[in-house]
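Q: Sequence in, structure out?
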Amino acid sequence: MAGGKDRVYVFTGVQTGWVKKRQFADAEYENLGEGWIYLVAACRWFPDFMLDLFQSDDADYDLSFIQRIFLRINANYQYTDITACRGATKSYCRQAGGYVDGLMWPGETTAVTGPSLKQTAKIASDTHKYLENNYPGLTDLYTVESDGMDRFVVSTPYKTRLSIDNKRGATVYRASAEETAQEEKPPFDEDEFKNVIIPTVRGEYKVKGHRSPAYIYFKQQSITSAGRRQQYAYLRRRSHRWMMARGESAYIIDVPYSVMLLEQMRPVAWAENIKNELTGAQWLREMESISSGSDKNPLIRDETINEARQLAMMEEHHCCKDRDCKTKPQDVIYIVGYDVSYRDNKGNAKCAVAVLKCTKQNDYYHRDKYLKQCVWIEDWTPAETPTPIAQAQRLRRIWDRYTYEGSQTYIAIDAWQYGDGVLSALMAEPVGGARPLCCYKHLEKTELELEGAIPVIYPVRAGGNGVRDPDSEMILNAQMQFEHGNVQLLTVAMNEGVEAYKAFHRIKDDSLNYKISQPYKKTNELVSQIQNLREEPSGQGIREKRISTHIQRDSWSALKYAMRLAQKLEKANLAKKPHKSDWDDMLAKYRDGNAIGVLPAAAHGRMVVARQGGRRF
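A: Exactly. Output:
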């Protein structure tokens, strides 16, 4: 440091210039006057500075860079979501920062909750002991009111209070939630957090009777390891991410185990030992801080879905309608998969459309399967007074967008219950003189067919065994197509996809970005729906079961129906008779059931005699 070991250059309201370190330490806070205001302000926004002042000579370690980040995030933002690996000292930083905030904002009260009061109180009690060793001057200012099995409370004489004893009707200034993504027993109770804890965060910090403009009100802090994407913890984190992008008072951070190793907080052997004990999905969550789908019998593996998300550009109409398209109309097939909402605007069910673009593959091993690219996804809530005719008209408009002369475009529709009425409405006389539609191969409702109707509607009859489209068979087909790389979804890099679409269509107007990005966003929702499904055995084979009933599967069903029709078209259009083998003529002589004894001499130029037995050396 400039000035040597004994001197330092200072600039304060008291003195300026080179002074001995001991002189500076003596004079630092004695006559600052209003300088105390700046010190308090600095420690409010930089609580790690306050901890540096209190740190004991016998402290176990100094604060690392990532710990300082945790402390500053919690101090400066209204909504914070810290997702970090095991051993990242999340709880330690949350509690240490809470103690500093309690001193800098006298009278502040904090409610802390977790998967269970017993677990949370134990963590808080153990953390307090660590803080007593590292920052004894800080913890001496707090009195431990309660340190029980399911209750931990500390306070100061100035009414600052940090408690783990969730009560209705209380008034606090901020809420901190521990392990919000925990699912093992006991799981984090999201309902209690939303219905009991959050309503109590309503305190208004006042100075001399006036509301303080400097205080950050209604703070909500969440710390956890990563979990499934179907949890409220992930959904809340996602909403806070959008708030953060809009410049609002929110901050999320995901910290993998590599940060702990680089900052030498943990040894490499520690991470390697944990990796040997965890599955791939568990390692992603616990150590990589990556939220994933189900790791217990997932319908489609996360790795497979990620590999499928390689389609850069969405298509809002038939590709041959683009002026620069080089695809021949006869070389492409579009299938509009449609899942009908029959709830009449009750519940969360929606009408969903997934458009598959099917093209023949030249690869030898995939020559009998189409490449199925999901180029468009859309859903909507049914009208207040839904009618089959309204749904049929909207579906017909989407089908029209993907039709082109010389090409084939089909509709795969859920034909049960409400869908049966939509199917009938689709086959009715269209407006504007367009050609009517009828069922593929005239499977159903031949009495409703109009003259000149195009057979492009495939009515999906899903269910158990005995129906045309058993659920088990459709699920197995979808799994196989994803696993074999025959399905592509829109890329997760939404901005890159939008730019690719604009570049291809020569669009320079940025105001259209929102509209163009919608299929990419809906694809993200589709992936969440797939990851929310778990495979279960049933008497009919296998079935899909939702992990969270709050997440629908409308878009997935629409995609599954489209893939079912694609399977039928592959069998009709691509399946070839096996090539005749060179051995067929030779083996045909022995197809009468006789064993092959002595082969004709003319065939080989010599007589071959079957071995009669005995030991062969």
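Confidence is low (pLDDT under 50) at residues 8-16, 21-30, 601-605.
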